[in-house]
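Session log. Operator J.P. requested a structure for one protein chain; no other inputs attached. Running the standard single-chain path with token output.
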Amino acid sequence: MKAIVFLLISIPIFSGAQLRIEWKNDFEPGEGAATGIVLNEGNVILSLTHVTYLFSSGGTTLANFGSGSGAMEIQKVQNKLYLIGGTALRIGSLTGQILESYNLTDDDGYPNALQNGKILGNGLYTAHSYNYLLKYKLNGERVFTKKVAELSTPEFLKAGGGYIYLHCNVINPSHGTRLMQYDTLGNQKWSIPVGYLDAMVADKAGNCYITAANPESTVTKINPAGEVVWSKLLNGQWAQGMSVYGDSLLLCGNISLNAITDKNQSCAFSIISATSGDILHQQDVDLYEDINERERMKTIATDGKAIYIGGTHSDENPRCFLIKLSREGNTTGIGENKTSNNFSIYPNPGGSQFRISCGQSDVSTLNVTVRNISGQVVYKKQISCNDQKTFTLDLGKQAAGNYSVEIVSGKDKTVKKIVVE
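Structure written below.
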């Protein structure tokens, strides 16, 4: 892997608060495509198809998981890292070592070529290259094999809310491309037509998000009952990777074909509200000077402080990259303005209940506004300091993550960062 290249330039955006690249890592040809990102206590784990790396939040390489450590899916469960790919399930530490490895086979004893897979509860669910949904124990022992159709080709498998979601091209019987929901016993709950997809993800509540394979992506949210909640066009962008953070859906890919000018094929990413589908932020990112070089973002993740994106560039002998982006001039994602020291918020980090203390403020009215990492207002209230000096801030309806609290008192404004756990 090559040395880190630090980029200090600002990047043009379509809307929202501007982000900048803090650093970019380039990888050697032959290490494979970027397939997944896991964030853990300030460190970044990036899986490629042939190898997996551990980086610090500053971009320094801390560990290489070793030859054959590549994965098609990567997932953190408690204090272990699960790497799913090839014909094996590998279990690693979060510090860069492979601890265990189990070869996975089908009913006939043949190796199962893993193109997908997710850990849910105490099992690994994966779809066979042709016709089957399989469950394995985390020691590699097969639990069940369920037939999906007489002839089918699985494209994506995700899990959330106690359900497994499988996107599959059902050839026989001729049903076309469908999204299917299964319970943990392998029983199909429903199957709906969705067309060809570029990306799919499920959240903890069991909602499934899909992007249709169009020049410009259409993003759709489907609830656990199989009903469409919303469907939005992602203007100017072609999404090929997705992740969920709190109430935000992060998407990455390219600018769309109709947005390309002068052969520029740069990357693009978006943040949208998982609740409404409203676009909160869009930005294109041109990483390489050669305007004929195609850049593709494939996997995206955030810890609420920064956004990490992995992808590839060049059509001939493609190479991977990993970048870290944060709000311009603010590497923590959400700023903290200490114009006034009259106010305190505690406990912090907290569960979802916080106390705001007015301290020595002589202002009778406070305007309190809370925003999530995407800048979306999630709470707004005017309170009076005349009768009492402490107030409860209830964020019980909000997802875990980082938030900013803006307190306006007269001409003074204080912005403090809090963490909902």
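Operator note: The radius of gyration is 23 Å.
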